[in-house]
Design a protein that fits this description.
Order of helices and strands of chain A: EEEEEEEEEEE
Distance between the termini of chain B: 41 Å
Shape of chain A: globular
Order of helices and strands of chain B: EEEEEEEEEEE
Structural class of chain B: mainly beta
Distance between the termini of chain A: 33 Å
Structural class of chain A: mainly beta
Oligomer: heterodimer
Helix content of chain B: under 10%
Largest sheet of chain B: 6 strands, mixed
Largest sheet of chain A: 7 strands, mixed
Strand content of chain A: over 45%
Number of helices of chain B: 0
Radius of gyration of chain A: 13 Å
Number of strands of chain B: 11
Chain lengths: ~110, ~110
């Protein structure tokens, strides 16, 4: 499968624990996005990368959230000291170099904070 | 920053009728407006998009219109079928400025038999 892959697909954790999600974009896609989606809502922008450079991080995102894309390929999203309000689906998407603008989403990583 | 509003949040139409979903955006610099469809339990997928240099675009039963003056754009689905039942998201970005893509909150479309 050459699509966007995310791992893990599901994560259950206790409040206060740290979690890390990984996203592998489509090969050679230079732009990578992280979104958060809760039930009945649209994807909420978290951050995005152009190759290894983080272009922007949402002002709504607390300092507990950090993302990296060290070699311009896969990316990780870490949430420290998780809270119940962090429970959501975390979606990764990549955008190609063709300039067409289409986002290719992964299946998402569902986080449940108990 | 960009803000995208989408209406209605839920829409039910009889099979065979048309459905219209409307979005407004706040940033006049936005020039790229995609629509994504998300079926239950699946990832969002692009169904159609429009750029600011055109006012309308069609792809079979789906069309999108754009009014840059009023800063709103709409998705039109004709001859609706059961497989059109899904959540639809509009989005906007300043593609020339390499800006991020911001989504609306979504419209849940129910096609009634």
């Amino acid at each position: 499968d050459t699509g966007v892959s995310q791992d893990p697909r599901h994560k259950i954790t206790k409040r206060g624990q740290n979690v890390t999600f990984r996203c592998d974009p489509i090969s050679e896609h230079n732009r990578l996005y992280w979104y958060r989606q809760t039930l009945g809502q649209g994807p909420e922008f978290l951050t995005y990368f152009q190759n290894e450079a983080q272009l922007e991080k949402s002002r709504l995102l607390s300092d507990r959230f950090s993302a990296e894309r060290p070699k311009g390929s896969f990316s990780t999203l870490e949430i420290q000291r998780t809270e119940q309000g962090d429970s959501a689906m975390y979606l990764c998407a990549s955008e190609g170099t063709s300039g067409l603008g289409e986002l290719f989403f992964g299946e998402g990583s569902r986080l449940t904070v108990l | 920053g960009e803000n995208v509003e989408q209406h209605p949040s839920t829409l039910s139409v009889q099979e065979g009728d048309s459905a219209v979903i409307k979005c407004t955006y706040s940033d006049s610099a936005s020039n790229y407006f995609p629509w994504y469809k998300q079926e239950l339990g699946k990832r969002p997928q692009l169904i159609i998009d429009i750029r600011s240099n055109v006012g309308e675009k069609k792809d079979q039963r789906i069309a999108v219109t754009l009014n840059k003056t009023a800063k709103h754009f709409s998705l039109h689905i004709t001859e609706t079928q059961p497989e059109d039942s899904a959540v639809y998201f509009c989005a906007a970005s300043n593609f020339i400025g390499d800006d991020k893509i911001i989504f609306g909150k979504g419209t849940r479309l129910h096609i009634l038999p």
